[in-house]
Specification:
alpha/beta; Aspartate Aminotransferase, domain 1; Aspartate Aminotransferase, domain 2; 2 domains; four-stranded mixed β-sheet; binds pyridoxal-5'-phosphate; cytoplasm; BioA; pyridoxal phosphate
């Protein structure tokens, strides 16, 4: 069975996600369909033995490489003991152990874990819980949310509504909640000579004003700490989180940290929230803020099986704890909530963080990624190369001085993507942004390959 065999059968019945299917099977296909037979470490392999370096960690999920032996072992052992049991009225060792571990690792004060099976659902849980908390405590006017422009929080209607205006959201606008969207601290548009910190502080003014005007009707502010990933890997200074924590407290509004993409070491620390400088820049104080809700998914199982969790504070949990007849319980569930296999994969993933000192090795790897993109940074039409930990993003623009983008229909990113696939590197772009978000087990040699292919792919994609 070769590639064409699986490709034909796939295109006959599978509706692929986030895809204009005509790109694959129209008269002049612009995107290849690649059947993957197996995977190992950072490599995917098709049915004809061709290999692809998974530079985007299979949509940011795969942090320790494909089929990591420790995770595979843990899954096999769990499968021999308990496959699945409903979590209402029942519990099991993997979920107890995982909850204890997550509470130990999370910002202090996040003490309760509510599970789901994908990131969007974890966001829905946070939104519903925040609203319901205010209702249970008698604040029934609070029915809205504040979100950042250019943000992305998932695809289900509640999570989709929180996302900034975009091609993912706009079609469904008539169906959606209407959050208060506030200009983003994303530093790409900052003026020449302005520091990230100054720009971020300046942009915070919009948030402060929205809170002043709307705190009475707002349940929570939701943000992606440090990096607006789906919005084109746009980055901002962690000072924003410090200012936001303080302002949410002052205005009596919850803070939801959507760490679905950036959690588990991607930014260089375990969580994006861990970067927030202490208020007043007290040098003796520990950095980091505690949000009221923290959503985790993607990397949590090392990219093996779906799992998501929303962590929250004991004080929020307590507002739901009452006599049954008071009707205050959080009556939300998903069929596969707390699946034991997924929890075991997550525990094995957390073991890897403890056993391998991965955050330290990642520092060296991210420096290497930066060094290896020196040539790329000089190419025409490369408007910015930005990096935070194990995310490096390259923004292409028609005019790098005015930052006028390439028209989206020119699909410059797709040209890089196709060049990458021909040369054995998976670089799925976000519009005009090419990015590296590799598994943490990538070797220096593989970083070199990745950067070489990306450099040449970009050089060709921006030529006319
Ligand atoms: C991917 C993502 C989601 C949605 O997670 P799914 O598992 O795809 O539903 C939500 N928020 C952020 C920041 C994400 O990157």
């Amino acid at each position: 069975m070769n590639n064409d065999h699986w490709k034909t059968r796939s295109l006959a019945h599978v509706w692929h996600p986030c895809t204009q299917m005509r790109d694959h099977d129209g008269e002049a296909p612009t995107l290849p369909m690649i059947p993957v037979k197996r995977a190992d470490g950072v490599w995917l392999e098709d049915f004809e033995g061709k290999r692809y370096l998974d530079a985007v960690s299979s949509w940011w999920t795969n942090i320790f490489g494909h089929r990591h032996p420790a995770i595979v072992e843990a899954l096999k052992a769990q499968l021999d003991e308990l496959d699945h049991v409903m979590l209402a009225g029942f519990t099991h060792a993997p979920i107890v152990e995982l909850s204890e571990r997550l509470v130990r690792l999370a910002p202090p004060g996040l003490n309760r874990c509510f599970y789901a099976d994908n990131g969007s659902s974890a966001v829905e849980v946070a939104l519903k819980m925040s609203f319901h908390y205010w209702r249970n405590t008698g604040q029934t006017k609070k029915t809205r949310f504040i979100a950042l422009e250019n943000s992305y929080h998932g695809e289900t209607l509640g999570a989709l509504a929180m996302g900034g205006p975009s091609m993912y959201r706009d079609t469904y606008a008539p169906l959606l909640l209407e959050p208060i969207h506030v200009p983003s601290p994303d530093c790409y548009p900052r003026g020449a000579g302005e520091s990230w910190e100054d720009y971020t502080r300046r942009q915070f003014w919009h948030m402060e004003r929205a809170l002043e005007q709307h705190a009475d009707e707002v349940c929570a502010v939701i943000v992606e700490p440090l990096i607006q990933c789906a919005g084109g890997m746009r980055m901002y200074h962690p000072l924003y989180l410090t200012l936001l924590r303080e302002a949410c407290d002052r205005h009596g509004v919850h803070l939801i940290a959507d760490e679905i993409a950036v959690g588990f070491g991607r930014t260089g620390r375990l969580f994006g929230c861990d970067w927030a400088p202490p208020p007043g820049f007290d040098e003796d104080a520990q950095p980091g803020i505690t949000p009221d809700f923290m959503c985790l998914s993607k990397g949590i199982t090392g990219g093996t099986i779906p799992l998501a969790v929303t962590l929250t504070r004991e004080s929020i949990y307590e507002a739901f704890w009452a006599e049954y007849r008071e009707g205050k319980a959080f009556l939300h569930s998903h069929s596969y909530t707390g699946n034991p296999l997924a929890c075991r994969a997550a525990l094995a993933t957390l073991d890897l963080f403890e056993d391998t000192r991965v955050l330290a090795t990642n520092r060296a790897l991210s420096q290497l990624m930066w060094a290896q993109t020196a040539e790329l940074r000089q190419l025409p039409h490369v408007a910015e190369v930005r990096q935070q930990g194990m995310v490096l993003a390259i923004e292409l623009a028609k005019n790098i001085r005015t930052k006028e983008p390439f028209p989206s229909e020119e699909r410059r990113g797709v040209r890089v993507y196709n060049y990458g696939l021909e040369h054995g590197v998976l670089l799925r772009p976000l519009g005009n942004v090419i990015y590296f978000m590799p598994p943490y087990v990538i070797t220096p040699r593989e970083v070199e390959t990745l950067c070489k292919v990306a450099t040449e792919g970009i050089r060709r994609a921006v030529r006319d």
